[in-house]
Specification:
Thiol Ester Dehydrase, Chain A; 2 domains; two-stranded antiparallel sheet; 6 helices; 13 strands; 21% helix; plasmid; Thioesterase-like protein; HotDog_dom_sf
Length: 280
């Protein structure tokens, strides 16, 4: 199912010459709403019943090439697994030539007003099951973590205010990679490194591969702590383990790989000075 069709990348979606990483989450969310409506279980109905619609539980994503200004993108979304209360969707972002820009797998669960997973209505579950395709693409980071010793850790805390919340009055999941990115930039600044000075023909520290597991929602007006442990650094990747906590609970655990891309969006190696702050 084409959930976004032939849409050109707009200036407001860019960070520098390439699409901001959070825009990929925006496209996923738009696509989730489209497929939810098509299968008869729309966000509006769930919100009217005080539920949290299609909350992500596990997100795996790989960026093959970053979209740039003028690129025309299409998102194709299909179900690949369905359970009693969950549905796993496969999202493929394609350019005008049909080449994959990014691939994502997301498992969604609708949360009831009491906090538990709400079973899918039987007719919706059956419709998803009938539409499931036999696809099992490998996306997200590798599990390899041996990158040497004495790699750094750092922490960022963020108060969850109104600009960060969604319709269910919880922190919007698009914001979490932003918070991780801010923490990374602040760490680099403390090490005397400016992304603005490094970025040019190469665009470093871009989200490339990630797997995040969502364990509990982040409430409005709480303090979110972003714990970051660097676990591998080389010319191809900076791999960071993330843990998001609030009110004494772990909200998200994730493994994130940041890459370097050229101005067309193609992956390229990091320069030595780009990875030096992680090895000092």
């Amino acid at each position: 199912m084409q959930t976004i069709s032939d849409t050109q990348v707009r200036f407001g979606e860019l960070a520098g010459p390439l699409v901001h990483g959070s825009v990929l989450f925006d496209w996923q969310l738009i696509s989730t709403q489209e497929i939810a409506a098509a299968f008869g279980y729309p966000f509006e109905d769930i919100l009217a019943d005080d539920g949290i619609p299609y909350a992500p539980v596990v997100v795996d994503t790989t960026v093959h090439r970053y979209p740039a200004l003028g690129d025309e993108i299409t998102v194709e979304t299909v179900p690949i697994d369905v359970g009693r209360s969950s549905v796993e969707l496969l999202y493929e972002i394609l350019d005008a030539d049909g080449e994959r820009l990014a691939t994502a797998r997301m498992t969604h669960v609708t949360i009831s007003s009491s906090g538990g997973a709400r079973p899918l209505p039987e007719q919706v579950r059956s419709a998803f099951a009938d539409a499931c395709v036999d696809r099992d693409p490998e996306v997200g980071p590798t599990t390899e973590t041996d990158g040497g010793t004495d790699l750094p850790s750092y922490l960022k805390s963020v108060p969850i205010r109104s600009p960060y919340i969604e319709g269910a009055e919880l922190s919007y999941f698009e914001e979490y990679p932003r918070f991780a990115g801010i923490a990374l930039e602040e760490f680099l600044t403390e090490q005397g490194t400016s992304i603005g000075e490094l970025a040019g023909e190469k665009q470093p520290y871009r989200l490339r591969d990630w797997e995040w597991e969502f364990q509990s929602p982040v409430q409005f007006e709480t303090e979110l702590h972003v714990e970051c442990d660097v676990i591998r650094v080389d010319q191809e990747t900076i791999r960071i383990a993330h843990k998001f906590t609030s009110s004494g609970k772990t909200n998200i655990r994730g493994l994130t790989e940041y890459g370097c891309f050229d101005r067309t969006g193609a992956p390229v190696p990091f320069d030595d000075e780009m990875i030096a702050p992680f090895k000092s």
